[in-house]
């Protein structure tokens, strides 16, 4: 008797279903760090970016 493979890969639950959420959170965290680092670097160079944004927003 010959074994037949009746297993359909589409029937399996997605094991990496939460991976997309983790990737989005990772990108958001890395983007936030990059923005803060760029702002800090500009401030060290003498450009106060936060003050400029506050002035433009009228805060």
Highlighted features:
mainly alpha; 59% helix; 59 residues
Describe the structure.
The protein is mainly α and 59 residues long. It has a domain at 25-59. It has two helices and no strands. It has helices at 19-44, 49-57. The chain is rod-shaped. It starts with 18 loop residues before the first helix and ends with a helix.
Largest pleated sheet: none
Written as H for each helix and E for each strand, in order along the chain, the element string is HH
Number of distinct helices: 2
Helical content, roughly? 55-70%
Mean pLDDT across all amino acids: 82
**Spatial shape:** rod-shaped
Structural class: mainly alpha
Strand content: under 5%
Distance between the termini: 79 Å
- As an assembly, this protein is single chain
Strand tally: 0
Uncertain regions spanning at least 5 consecutive residues: none
Q: Please compute the radius of gyration using only Cα atoms.
A: 25 Å
């Amino acid at each position: 008797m010959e074994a037949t493979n009746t297993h359909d890969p589409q029937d399996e639950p997605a094991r990496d279903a939460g991976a997309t959420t983790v990737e989005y959170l990772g990108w958001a965290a890395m983007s936030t760090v990059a923005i803060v680092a760029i702002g800090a670097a500009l401030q060290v160079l003498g450009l106060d970016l936060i003050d400029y944004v506050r002035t433009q927003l009228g805060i």
